[in-house]
Structure formats: C-alpha cells, structure tokens
C-alpha cells in the first residue's frame, strides 16, 4: 500500500532536537517531514504530500562572509563533514521554538530567530537572523514554500563579501523508482531565474515533476535600487564527488554562473546571491521559493504565482481566498457503506457556497473524481465494493468559485478505506476471494502487493492454512487476541506470507476456520504466482 502512516490533526507536528522545537509542514501540496528548523535546514520533502515521493532529502541554507581577517562559512544541513555539518544549529545560542501564525489550515507561517553566538570557528559572531516559512492550501499557491531570512549585523565590524544561498540535493524520482538520482539533470533557467532539476526520461510517466529554487527578493549586490530576482551563483556537484571542506564550499558559492550539467547524474545544486557589505547595525533580507511543477512550463507558472504574492505582502488576495479547509473525521465503515463527516469552520465565511467531496480508487494523491457536492457536513458513499480501497478529500467553495486546497493532511484520508462484509452468524459460509488467485487482485494498489480475503467469517475465529501435505503455513486470528486489524467484520485479509515471513509458492492450499466454541469449516484455494 502507498501509506503506512496517517498524520491527522495538526498540520504542524512537533518534535524536539537539541533543545529546539522542530515542525512538519503538511498544509498544501508540498510537505516537509520529519523536521523544519530555524537553522536553515528542512528535512524530507513529499510532493504531492502523502505520495511518499520525496525528491528532496535535505534542503539547507548557505552563508559566507569575511569579518576582520576571518572567513566564516556556514551550512544548514549535512555534507558528511564535521566542520560543516549543521553549522547553523551548532552556532545558535537561542534555541528558539517556532511561533505560528495564519489559521494553520489555509495558511501556515512559521517564525523564529537565531544567532551565531556559539560559533566555534572562527568564534562567536554578532550576527542575528530570523526565519519565516510560508505554506498555503490553495490550488494556485500550494506548489511552493516561501522562505524569508533577515540577517542583522549587531557587531562593530563590517561584514564583507556577504553571500547567501541554498543547497538543493534532489533525487528526482517517484518512491517506487530504483536509484532515481542517477539520471537527473540540473539547469539554470535564465528567463525565470530558476535553478532546477528534473529526471532524464520521466521514469515512464512516474516522475513528471521538476523541482527548483528561485530568488524572490534580495538587494542588488551591485548597489542599485530595488530588489533582484536572479542568482549570482549557480553551481553543482556529483554526490559521488562531494564537497571536501569549507574552502571547497566557498569556492562553489562564489564561482559565478555555471553552464547546465553536461550529462545526467546524482547532482546537488548550489544557488547563491551576493556579495554584499553589511555595515554595523545594517540588515539584509532574502526570500527564496522552493517550487515544484509539472515540466519546465509548470515550474515557471507556479513560480509566477509565487512572485505575484510579493505584491500583496505574501498574502493571498482577498478576492481569491476560499473558505477554510474542512477537517475530515475518521471515515465510518459499516458493511458496504462509508460515511464521511467534516467540521463546519468553512461555513463561517460570508460567501460560503458548498463542499466538494472527491474520491480516488488508486491512491491518496488521486486521480480524483467528484463524488458529490453538498452544503451538509456529511456524505454517505453507497457506491463501494467490499475489499476495494477508497481515498477521499473534501474541499470548500465560495460563491466566486474559489476552492480550498485538496492536499493537506486535515482534509484527506491517507490510508485506504476498505468496506467490509458483516460477520456471519454461523460457520459454513466462508469464501476465499479471489479463488484462484492469478498473479494479483483488483484491490491491490501496488505491483508488489499480494493479498486474498476470507469473507463471511463468524465474528471471531482462527483461520489456519495448510499445504497439501498438512504442514501449517500460518494461523490468522480474526477478532481474537493477536489480530493486528480487529474490526468486528466478517473479512480477514492475508498477504500470502507464511508464519516464517516467507512469500508462499504457487499451489493448492487447505484452510480450516474454527470458532472458540469449536465450530469449524474447511476448504481449499489455489495460488498461481506470476504476472498480473
């Protein structure tokens, strides 16, 4: 199955690392987990959120400058070298927790500040910086994150050759693709200022997305008025030929604009802007967009949407704001009925119009079909098949047609909802489906997934499976102690794995269903492994 976890309530899940609070972002289409820190580090990305397609593993800030006769080079993540790894984290003397603003459903803004007072080499610095990260649950603005950093020189010495940027280590490929990083390209789009990466062949349609980083606002390094939106540094390196120390990193940060990669490979991208002179008491602000999109044109379109928000102070325009994102409750399954309920916070909008409920029979990220529209807070799905997987997402809509996003953790089911048969009052009606099992079943979501169902079981029993020679393969408790999925139904799923955790071979198998009262039924089924 696609999912093994279900992050339901907060869109910001907290953990603590080194005394400082971390946060997960699960608001829009771009998810970040397990950690987002105010030290210039973001953990595993998922796009679309809930897909387990990561693309990016560590996204990290870069900073370099000279003060008196000393050189400072800082990195937000890990390059496998102690002198660079988590440099921002180790230097920070504040260890602040995030503050949160926005409603946490339609918009999430994380904010925190830090300093370099604990920097070991070349020593403590009088430089402070604040970070804010913005994520949106809006179909026009949910393909990117906005990261703003403000640096302030509180010391008495001028900081020279001040250069800032981001490190993008992308393995562009879907979760099921083996070694996706080996055929990636990296390029700089001069028309938009995007430094981006993409897969060489799209993995037969499994990897349609490009990912890139673009400068949204920064002072002109040449001293001109206004802001610039173009990197002054663009370089890359192969992960099999990693950066070997601060001097190597600094050289790549300040080596101008490279040509696009000459061949595909496992690249990491470095994009920077600078140099600046930061006098005592002066501040400098940078905003960067981390953007996804389908192909280069989709990437450019989503970047343009992000840049449009700069005109409104990174706030979605009022005439485009939909009602709040509904929070979907745990679906209630009763036989062949699935009841879905959600809260009514969206209805507080004066122009609220309706809810839209979508369903997918394939995965938590679609494709989606519109199941129904309603002004109520619940819908019962009657058109379902027992044992088959269903996924749902609910959106709110206003009278102008503005719709809330569909990708947040609050408004979706991430694990499949499977309707079940009611239990049988007597033994003797048990069936195995499909029988025979011919390489697969229609309800299986992945090629590697294999399963059959025992249906019309009594409320509680033990299913014991044997080979033709009488050797026990496995015993499956049903609504008894040891049942990993007790649900009170008359169905039990088996993944065709023996008690020794080995996949079973093709052949004819026998089974016995026995209740605690001693009633039993026996039968047989056929497994034929191979292509679906």
Characterise the protein shown here.
The chain is mainly beta and about 525 residues long. It folds into three domains: about 15-315, Beta-galactosidase, Chain A, domain 5, CATH 2.70.98; about 325-400, Immunoglobulin-like (Sandwich); about 430-530, Immunoglobulin-like (Sandwich), CATH 2.60.40. The chain contains three helices and 31 strands. Strands 7-8-9-10-17-14-13-12 form an eight-stranded antiparallel beta sheet. Strands 3, 4, 5, 6, 11, 15 and 16 form a seven-stranded antiparallel beta sheet that branches. It has a five-stranded mixed beta sheet with strand order 25-31-30-27-28, with no helix packed on it. The longest helix has 14 residues, at about 295-310. The radius of gyration is 27 Å and the shape is elongated. The model is unreliable at about 1-20 (pLDDT under 50).
Task: Sum this structure up briefly.
This protein is 5% helix and 39% strand. It has 532 residues and is mainly β. It has an eight-stranded antiparallel β-sheet with strand order 7-8-9-10-17-14-13-12.
